[in-house]
Amino acid sequence: MIIYLMKRLGLAAIVVMAVLLLLFSMLHMIPGNPAILALGTRATPEAIAEYTARMHLDEPVLTQFVYFLGSALQGDLGQDVFSNRAVVDIIGERIGFSLALICTGMGWAVLLGVPLGCLAAVRPGSWVDRVTGVFSVGMIAVPSFLVSIWALLLFSLELRWLPAIGAGEPGDFADQLSHLVLPAFAIGLGWVGYLARMVRASMLEVMGEPYIRSARAFGLTPRRVVLGYALRVAILPTITLIGMGFGGLISSAVFAEIIFARPGVGKMIFDAVSDRNFPIVQGGVLVATGFYILVVLMSDLLIAWLDPRVRSSL
Amino acid sequence: MKDMDTHMTDETLLNIDALSLEFRTNRGQVKALRDISFPVKKGRILGIVGESGSGKSTVLWSILGLLAGNAKVTAGRVDYGDRDLLTLDAEALRALRGEEVSVVFQDPMTSQIPVLPYARQMSDILYRRAMSEADKRAAAVDMLRRVGIPDPESRVDAYPHQFSGGMRQRAGIAMSMLTGPNLLLADEPTTALDVTMEAQMIGLMRGLRDDFDTTIVVVSHNLGLIAEMCDDVVVMYAGEVVETGEVHDIFHNARHPYTRALLECDPARIADVSRKLPVIPGDIPDLTKPLAGCIFASRCQKAMPACATKAPPLVERGTGVARCHLLEGPLADASWPPPASVSTVARDDGAAAPLPANAGEPLLEVRDLNVQFRTMGALKARIRGVARPFVDAVLDVSLDIRPGETLALVGESGSGKTTLGRTILNLQAAAGGSVRFDGTEIGNMAERRFKPLRRDMAMMFQDPTGSLSPRKSVRALITEPLLIHGAEGRDLDAEAERLADMVRLPRGFLSRYPHELSGGQARRVGVARALALNPRLIVADEPTAGLDVSVQGEILNLMADLQAEHGLSYLIITHNLPVVRHIADRIAIMYLGRIVEDGPAAEVFANPAHPYTRALVEGVPQPDPDRRRPPSAAIEGEVPSLLRRPKGCDFATRCPLARDACRPAKPEHRHITPDRRHACLFPLTDTQDNKNKTETP
Amino acid sequence: MSALPSDPARSATAPEAQDGEARESAGRERREKLMRFLTDWQAVTGLVLVVLFFASALFAPWIAPYDPNAMDIPARMSGPTWAHIAGTDQLGRDTFSRILHGGRVALYIAAIGVSASLSIGLVLGMIAGYGPRWLDNLLLLAFDAVRSFPAVILALATVALTGPSLTVVLAIVILTTIPSYGRVARTATLALRHTEFILAERSLGASTPRILFQHIMPNVIGPLLILAAMEVPVVVSIEAGLSFLGIGVLPPQASWGTILNEGYLVIRDAPWMVVAGGIPLILTTLGFTFLGEALRDIFDPRMGRGR
User: Fold this and answer.
1) pLDDT band, very low/low/confident/very high, at B140 (cuts 50, 70, 90)
2) How far apart are CA A154 and CA B239, in angstroms?
3) Which of B675, B556, B623 is closest to B235 using CA atoms?
4) Could you tell me the domains of chain A?
5) Beta strand extents in chain C (DSSP E only)
6) SS3 state of residue B433
7) Residues 524-543 of B with CB under 8 A from C
8) What residue ranges are annotated as transmembrane (chain A) (predicted)?
């Protein structure tokens, strides 16, 4: 178990390193002075000289990477080109908005999608199954950014039920919550359908297994057979899927933050790209990567905990 | 529970009456069961025997109402007491399941939920009982102990994957007996197990019947199991009951030609040693078509013109019924059934294979061959401090095969016999030792250099259909070896037809695809492909696996004919001892990757030297109810995992004759005669066998 | 199911009666599959929408009532009228014509993106499934990393360095969708790798390329083609999404994403633009999803898992 954990953590570290290397080399692969790229064309010669010295740009590339790595590991991701504030601080201000959005979006999708998938699988061909089937295809088919735009148009601009932009007044929980509803709805909608289908397919497969027939042959109640036996096994691939799907959810969240002008990390990266504000882009990408690696790791550990076969093979 | 059922005092516990059932498939309605009727008598063990496609398991599942979704009962009743199980509602049926009627499944690997421990699975079965959780657990522990699980107090918390195959099936039986059911249904309960395990399970189930007064219905294709275990027998063929009766009547006085033919085809019942085995020619009829007359008519040696059109009469006799024109009515034949000594099936005795010349240099020489499998990564081994992060799948194996000779490699699952076969053919890397073919060292040769040798050595794989590339036609499959090894100037179509003729496969089959073939036909394609390059050695891995008794003879006869014609050598890898007796010149017995005994087949069978050989020879249940073994005859325990290989003799953990001297070191191989070796410190041939038995505590 | 090879030599030998039956049942099975397809409303809807997508994209220059880039300033920001059934944008360009032409971009990306990532994914997946363990682990790690990495973040990082272009969109599309095919191909190959028929081929001396392309590929390609139908919506959505963010197809070229982008900027004054721009996107994704699912249900009912 400990070996497994170490292996997974080692692997995660390797991926983070690879991303760091990629980000670093990107800045160096494109033609032009990295200092100008990093500081923007408006930078003064003094600033460029100072930056060149500070970032060791006059030293060999490998040494530069070691310095870059060293400071990144110490939590120093550089400074915002315009305000000169530490990137880490800027991300710290914004990450809460992103986390709230992602967790709420996935949360409601799981709470609705998993039971729907179960219901559909228990009675294949019933009206619940058919309605779920059609709706879930519909929900998957609409790209999340389109859901965001249309939800904004319908619920904010036309019906005026919910606020359109921003994240709400700081400290006002109800206001913040009302700003969370639409984007969370938008990024979770596709997931409801996706999870419903996934759970349904997984349940149907498990329901065909011989051990489900044995459970029925021993006279267990249908309820116990479905919830205690079939779902217990069918949930395992679903957990992996949720873990793997977080990357997609992060993408959706970036769109939602941009469309609803929500001051999260995604919006920050997007704005920084337009401004060619590279330290911010670097920091944001790094945080997003780290988050997704953490989620995948957690889902793997959850599987290992829930599945005795995996547990004992570790 | 049982006291309430006063009407159960009647002798019949369950009565199946005129049951008919259809499966809806994309080929049309399959009439899987037609007019099935038989009683199950209280307190007895009833066996339903039949080959694949006979519908024997379907009968079992229809009793419990657990049929597949595309099945539909079209007629009949299943009376249990005063209730018809086919008309019971879901609630009433569920009340019955587990409590009064319980099941043992074929494959304990897939029929037990992998994510719950046995304690939970078993207390779930007791959910209807007003017992505390602690009492349920205690009941589970007691039942596990009763079925022979060692240390049940802690094992009850184990998960299925932590048990070995035999233990899993014991646990499966424990689960089914937990509620003390009136009726136990067992679906091929030993098919997934090895011979020595099978004997144990038969003893266990008979014991449970006596202790719990449970009626058992067991479904099997294994005549030995039926003869040894059952009191009454139902013989099924292609969805119909052809004969019923008490076990002695069925095995010694069979009246239906199919029953008779089935028994005569069983190699274990053929006393003389012959290269040619009897067969029932033909295939079972297409059950989607309208059926008239006798279902067996198309394959019956005694068939008359009327058999194909006129339904046979149901003829009563003391203990059962049979359905045949020969027995009653205008077509009755007083000379039927003939005495047991008369053969009623096709047995191709002509052109008997000449005895192979055993002289000459060996074609294949294997010396001290070792194969190892890694059990963990190098890093993990380092961290855990494991010095040997691998197991020995094959350990110091030596064997010779001479031209024209058949060597059978016999062992239970996990004995390394398949690995050995693959290593000889360079499909698996060897860790040490030597393999010489025709005098040339070929062990661990690079594939590029080995390729020309593949012309001389071919392999037949276990699964007849699964070893054929599914998207290739038969023509492409059997000519592929020619393409691989350069077919310049050859007419591939002509070659394909030549090969098809050689294995007696109709030429029309050349354009078929593997999934359109029956098991026997697919096996012929496998033989044809192996023969394409005129090899000198064929390694055949379980050549009769997946084939019914009535068909396996065709393949073995074909192989014998080809051997006589082309002077082939065979290395036959199998667990099927009765078959080996007929086809092998010499046999080698493997246990845990080591050869424990080898020698001429007849001698080894008649006079085993190693206790394991004797356990194997005696472990096969005899298809004769008069030759039942006492329950104690079964050898105890299970093949240990390779991870826990004993330090001394590998068999010492299970050997009834093991002494202290067996445990410190592996016994060397010793010769009895130049042709016969064993690896036992106290071989059975040294002293009087019986004397040895009594002396050992 | 591949068509059975017709062989003139065979007709010379008398075909068995049973052989004819097998042929007949194979034909019946094909007919039944076709019937099941044609009676499934989702399948038919999917097929109609997909045909519509191809036709409108291919024939856009002839169907479109206006030049997609022709500005008609007096008629700018017009709502849906008979002259402009989907309205006009802030430059007075006809939205409907722009949608039709935008379909060409979607088709271009879908065709090149799907075929490129299908081929690369197939080969990589087979290598991962059949090759040595370490290579499998490495490729699997790469597949998982790329597949679950947020595509938008990747696109933003790339565009930050290279600037937006259609090539970047295509590269992102191919890169992010390779793992789907790769994983399916790997799983299927891995399942086949230890089957007896592959072992049998090895025992005959068949070379690794022969085993991969003659024996494994025909068994792997079917599910991959169905997957390709289901991946078209993903590809089209990525293009639209990136173009919507202004980091994909650049104005003035019409694409569904740029129409949405321009519409979003004027969403309060001209809401019909984001509505009209979204409809073709939804119809296309629905069409391919329905079609893919129907094909999967008919040909490979067991494939539903794993994705």
Assistant:
1) very high
2) 64
3) B623
4) 2-73 (no CATH), 93-275 (1.10.3720.10)
5) none
6) strand
7) 526, 529
8) 9-30, 95-122, 134-157, 177-196, 233-260, 280-306
The pair phi, psi for residue A265, each rounded to 5°, is -65, -40
Amino acid letter, B159: Y
Whole-angstrom Cα distance, residue B403 to residue B417?
Answer: 21
- Closest Cα to residue C125, out of C140, C147, C146, C145? C140
Coil/strand/helix, residue A153: helix
Query: What is the residue extent of each domain of chain B?
Result: 364-456+572-622+632-695
Helix (H, G, I), strand (E, B) or coil at B77: strand
- Taking the CA of residue B103 and the nearest CA in chain A, the distance in Å comes to 7
In Å, what is the CA distance from A73 to each residue of A17, A51, A78, A277, B696? 10, 20, 12, 21, 72
- From A3, A215, A219, residue closest to B113, measured CB to CB: A215
Sheet holding B432-437, edge to edge: B390-401, B364-374, B432-437, B440-441
Cα gap C229→C240, rounded to integer Å: 18
Among candidates B404, B399, B403, B400, which has minimal Cα distance to B416? B399
Three-state DSSP class for residue B102? strand
Rounded CA separation B398/C302 (Å): 45
Cα angle for residues C184, C185, C186 (degrees, 5° grid): 90
Using the Cβ of A126 and the Cβ atoms of chain B, whether some distance falls under 8 Å is answered with: no
Phi, psi of B413 (to 5 degrees): -65, 140
Amino acid symbol at A58: D
Please give the structure tokens belonging to residue A242. 């949720």
Q: Which residues of chain A have pLDDT under 70?
A: 1, 26-42, 55-57, 167-168, 312-314
For domain B364-456+572-622+632-695, which CATH number applies: 3.40.50.300, 3.40.50.620, 3.40.50.1820, 3.30.420.270?
3.40.50.300
DSSP calls for C72-99: -GGGTT--S-SSSTT-B-TT--BHHHHH
Q: Shortest CA distance to C199 belongs to which of B563, B529, B410, B574?
A: B529
Q: How far is CA C185 from CA A201, A244, A251, B23, C192, in A?
A: 20, 18, 26, 34, 10
Distance CA C296, CA C225 (A): 10
| pLDDT(B218) > 90 | yes
Q: What is the pLDDT of residues C177-206, one digit of tens each?
A: 898 899 889 988 988 888 889 989 988 888
B446, B449, B452, B458: CA torsion to nearest 10: -10
Q: Is-contact C183 C128, C-beta < 8 A? A: no
* Interstrand relation of B457-460 and B586-591 (parallel, antiparallel or unpaired): unpaired
> Between these two residues, C148 and B484, which has the higher pLDDT value?
B484
- State mean pLDDT over B669-686: 85
State both tokens at B413: 């699952």
CB contact under 8 A, A150 and C275: yes
- Say which of A210, A306, A307 has its CB closest to residue B111: A210
Q: What is the DSSP letter of B279?
A: B
pLDDT number for residue B282: 81
Tokens representing residue A64 in the block:
């530069």
CB of B507 within 8 Å of a chain A CB? The answer is no
Q: Which residues of A touch B113 (CB under 8 A)?
A: 211-212, 214-215, 229, 232-233
Contact B43, B213 (CB under 8 A): yes
Tokens of C130: 């059949």
| ipTM higher than the 0.90 cut | no
Instruction: Report in angstroms the alpha-carbon separations of B639 from B164, B593, B635, C119.
Output: 9, 11, 11, 47
A246's tokens: 């977080």
Query: Which two tokens mark A240?
Result: 């992996």
Do residue B105 and residue A306 have CB atoms under 8 angstroms apart? no
Nearest Cβ partner for C203 among B459, B468, B510: B459
